[in-house]
Automatic annotation (TrEMBL):
UniProt keyword annotations, A-Z: ATP-binding, Coenzyme A biosynthesis, Cytoplasm, Kinase, Nucleotide-binding, Transferase
Classification via HAMAP family: Dephospho_CoA_kinase
EC category name: transferase
NCBIfam families, per database record: dephospho-CoA kinase
Gene symbol of the encoding locus: coaE
Alphabetical list of InterPro entries matching this protein: Depp_CoAkinase (IPR001977), P-loop_NTPase (IPR027417)
Official protein name in the record: Dephospho-CoA kinase
Main location: cytoplasm
Entry's Gene Ontology BP terms: coenzyme A biosynthetic process
Length: 202
């Protein structure tokens, strides 16, 4: 039987990765759209050639890989270029994610995406789990992890769906405001519940 798909979403610094890692350690097949986004622009893949053609060879590093920071800086101030890049990459990332989900052999599979709600991808999953965290904690964690300024983190948070928007679409919410041991116990509790579901519903 084809596994049903759980969407895993949460804003920057919410702890999505820690949650995904714990589910993976329990034997759940996890596909991360951020990873898929990296795969589709690897050297030798058609997307990378198209990007270099469009933006110029300046977006490539000496070893032929994509200069992500350089590209981000170029599109950050330019909505048209950002739209062009998204138009190229989103369908490719979706295909890559679908391909990896189709390899799942666990009772359910997880699709992790920071932009699940923003990109309308929540409609492609059977159930949505949102990792939620108070904004102040989100800021503090993301600043520490990425060595970023408060201004940078706030700009990313602004580009993501609001907490309210994410929670509105959630079937399950995991509030990640304690330590890792507590978080892992919550994931185990959810996993036991998910194993009782068929197609993401009771």
């Amino acid at each position: 039987m084809k596994p049903w798909v759980l969407g895993l979403a949460g804003g920057i610094g919410s702890g999505k990765s820690a949650v995904a890692d714990r589910f993976a350690s329990l034997g759940v097949h996890v596909v991360d759209s951020d990873q898929a986004a990296r795969w589709v622009v690897e050297p030798g893949r058609p997307a990378l050639a198209r990007i270099a053609e469009h933006f110029g060879a300046g977006v490539l590093q000496a070893d032929g890989t994509l200069d992500r920071a350089g590209l981000r800086a170029r599109i950050f101030q330019n909505p048209q270029e950002k739209a062009w890049l998204e138009g190229l990459l989103h369908p490719l990332v979706r295909e890559e994610v679908e391909r990896h989900l189709s390899l799942a052999r666990s009772p359910y599979a997880i699709m992790v995406s920071p932009l699940l709600v923003e990109a309308g991808l929540h409609r492609r999953v059977d159930r949505l789990l949102v990792v939620d965290v108070p904004e102040s904690l989100q800021l503090e964690r993301a600043m520490r992890r990425d060595e970023a300024s408060e201004e940078q983190v706030r700009a990313i948070m602004k580009a993501q769906a609001s907490r309210e928007e994410r929670l509105r679409h959630a079937d399950d919410v995991l509030v990640n405001d304690r330590d890792l041991t507590w978080l892992q116990a919550q994931v185990e509790r959810l996993h036991a519940f998910y194993l009782t579901l068929r197609g993401g519903v009771q």
